[in-house]
Fold UV damage repair protein UvrX.
Amino acid sequence: MIGKPPIDYSTLPDGDIACFDIKSFYASIEAIARGFDPFETAIAVVGNQDQQGSVILAASPYMKAKFNLGTGNRLYEIPDIPEILLVEPRMELYMNRALQIIDIYTSYVHPDDIFVYSVDESWLDLTSTKVRYNGTKNMVTKIKNEINNKHGLACSVGVGPNMFLSKVAMDVEGKKTGYARWGYDDIKDKLWPLEVSKVWGIGSRTAAKFNKWGIYTMGDVASRSLEFFKKRLGIVGVEIYRQAWGIDDSRPGGFYDDKRKSIGRGATLYRDYQKFEEIKTVIFNLSEDIGYRARELGLAGRTVSLYIRYSQEFYKKGFQGQQTLESATNLEHEIMRAALELLEKKYQAGSPIRRISLSLSNLLGEENVQLSLFQDKEKKMNLARARDQIRNEFGPEKLDYGLSQADGSIRERLNSNIGGHKKK
């Protein structure tokens, strides 16, 4: 039996948070670029068509509906028929389109009222601006229409008093109807019947634990006590329990939230890397890329994270670690130095490495970096910006550090790919 809510809902924020999701983003862009309607065309975006085991990165709505194939399926599962169009990913095109859509969002709400969750999904806080557009639904419709008119893309939208309810409303109802609005009054009838495994934020392992405890739905979660989840899952359990009651204190907090966002880059290597100097070169290549992107975004970060995956044949899987710096940075040499310190602590010399990933987090605006505490940091940052200008004007290969092209370098691959796929 479910008792009373753990909080008086009248004391909670009751704004209008909208979760926008662009339908079949990559595949829809590819269909439209070829003059096709993504709702009437079977199109799949596949990274490497030379390998039958390649994963489908995206599929058009028609492809999903007619062939029951979508993201995560394999190339060998796709029927070899003329009706299905296979295309390679063009990541630069997708990133540019995502930025154009964000530009549309910022024409309706302040950037501080937007949280970009991924290339195709964002939250917008419409609370303070909906009155200009004669209410929330009219405002959402206007934004959706502008995205469709300018780019041919369709959106699913969920609206709720907080980020969690708007996201679940979009996932469960909005993807079917185009628009859904859930409030605190809908928790009992709409949220509680949902299986925990189908709810955003609850992973498969956590759902499996819940099932072992006799918990299958969000209503089952709400029927237990807060202490039950706190004792077994700690802060994660507390959050899920609160969400079962529709409670979520988070809100869209601007394009870059230092608690949630990071700038990262990784690479799967074409062969095993075992020599320290070659590994160092790859780490520097990744550091260069991250530093450059951070400066372009006007950001700096305090925490450097390194992830190493060994070759499949090796008896160990790999390791990861992170280091928090005294001052935020966006300089490649400082990022590399922190990563190498992590490598030296954890790497067993001679172990075969097959993937290296690096990220910079705990982000803040570049203008907030305390340069006065460090004698030459401002000079180094100015030099880095000057170097960036040369790269942007003449190409990244025109001004390289010697280490960029040392043995084992993957610099050329990084310059020509985004997210492991070709830019164009």
Notes: The two ends are 56 Å apart (CA to CA). The mean pLDDT is 86. The chain has 14 helices and 14 strands.
